[in-house]
Amino acid sequence: MSASYMPYYIPIIVIVMLVLEICKYDDPKTILKRAFTNVAVLTGVLAAGMTAIYFVNKYF
């Protein structure tokens, strides 16, 4: 992924997660809490995967 696209990652992911949570719940607090939790988990998984790939490529 090019670094020039990185500023778009968070807004796009937040919007997608909000839309998915709006389809499941009616309470705005629940929607926001679950959407931002999902964004954090997705970002963590992607960061862990990128870190693992970096070290595999560098040392193996």
- Sheet-strand content, in percent, reads under 5%
**Could you tell me the radius of gyration in angstroms?**
15 Å
Query: Structural class per helix/strand content?
Result: mainly alpha
Gross morphology is elongated
State the low-pLDDT regions, or none: none
* Overall pLDDT level: 91
Main sheet attributes: strand count, strand direction, barrel closure: none
Q: How many distinct beta strands?
A: 0
Distance between the termini: 22 Å
| Helix content bin | over 70%
H-E order: HH
Q: Can you count the helices?
A: 2
Short description:
The chain is mostly helical. Helices cover 85% and strands 0% of the residues. The chain has 2 helices and no strands.
Fold and architecture overview:
The chain is mainly alpha-helical. Helix content is 85%, strand content 0%. The two termini are 22 Å apart. The model has no long low-confidence stretch (mean pLDDT 91).
Task: Record keyword descriptors for this entry.
60 residues, mainly alpha, 0% strand, elongated
Secondary structure blueprint with pairings:
Elements: H1 6-24, H2 28-59
Helix pairs in contact: 1-2
